[in-house]
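Usage example:
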Amino acid sequence: MRLVLSIFLFASLFSSVASADEIVFRGNYWRDRNTRVIQPEADLQKELPTGTMVGAHYLLDTITSASVAAGAVRDQPFTELRNEVGFRLGQRIGPATLVGRYSYSSESDYWAHTAGLSLLVDLFHKNSTLGLSATYGHDDVGLRMDAKTFNPVGGLQTIHFILSWSQVLTTKLLLNVSYELGESGFGSASNGYQNNPYRTVSLGGTPSRETTPFERFRQAFSAGFNWIVPTRAQLVPWISFRPSYRFYFDDWGLRSHAAELRMYFPVGVFEFRLTGRYYHQNSVSFWNDVDGTPSYSGSHGKSCSTCYFTKSSLGFYTSDPKLGIFSSEFLDFRVLIHLTGLRRFNSRLAHYLSASYIELSYGHYFNDRYAHTAFGDADLAGLAFAFPL
Amino acid sequence: MRRRPFYRNILPMKMAVLCFALASGLSGCVRVKPYQREYLSQRAMDAAAEKVEDRFKQHWQGSREGSEGGFGSAGGGCGCN
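Running the assembly step on the lines above writes:
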């Protein structure tokens, strides 16, 4: 099962309003010890003179893995495909913008529908922007038996609400804050299945399929600044900094802190970006390990002492590395190349392409503790071409 | 172990209320006019400019980390008038 591959479809709910009319072709690459992901995708967006905004995206995940956590039941690596398609439609109405979205993701053992509605309101002469968003997700989970058959094992329904505020503080400084509230699952396997049906954990010495609560109540708060500093130098006319912080909290007992800094600086037709991110989380309340490896001594796991709604006398047990305590760091370098130099060529194609750009990026992800044992570090790369519409 | 009541576990909510109050309170003090938005309209100041890349970033972060969310941003500073 790849629960993790479908929980992001609700993200970027407000992102389409301010960005340019363009079509982006992007290739993403991920490689760690067990898993390689190659993900081509296309995303287009266009705002019509009537204030109507249309957008769509398509991506294909090509996942080659030998990881049990990723669904492998044998040592032999296998490749799985995930298709995702999404549409968005928005309309400006005075100072407000209403955007509706839908996306569908399909793989051999996981199918996810996500629909969302967001409202942005410009206030105080566009010095403030209030954002409200609601998203509903409906997933079906299967246990793949072989290439042709699978058994349905459950479903997952999610609801997310986001409240955000963006505030212009000065001519060079912006403040963004957001608060998110989410509920994953509503108390049964048919609407709250959040296990990996392939993953096992040692329960009293016997490998058993992991069992987690059917409800999870999530909260996240984030704040960040966008700050640009003019340098008065011709070569590098400005430098921009984007520090941000996120605090996450859920009723499984997991708390996390994520701090990130992005720094941008242009040099001619190039724009360079450096990113550094630090992340730390504790473990969920029913996590147990012995010498760093998930293992439960009894035959009934541990109760979820922090859960608001879930009451189970049987307890829960998991070996999911991302539910244990660990820290991670991420470093990334990106260069964006504006193709403005093509203007010198006297052709319509060259003039059109002169408004395009190319992006190249490389990053490295570090982690520690059991997450490192299970996943290891990862290398990431990206290549994108963007053309105006 | 005794369960903590639901309303006792709302620290992020309290932080959000505090920051929203602070940010909205600032709105009355700040008046940046459209012709003063030269720097705010730079691509590097637009959170939405990297949405395609960020979608993949949120994807892999969620597959390796236990938390999610916190990416909702109104994307102000677009320089649009």
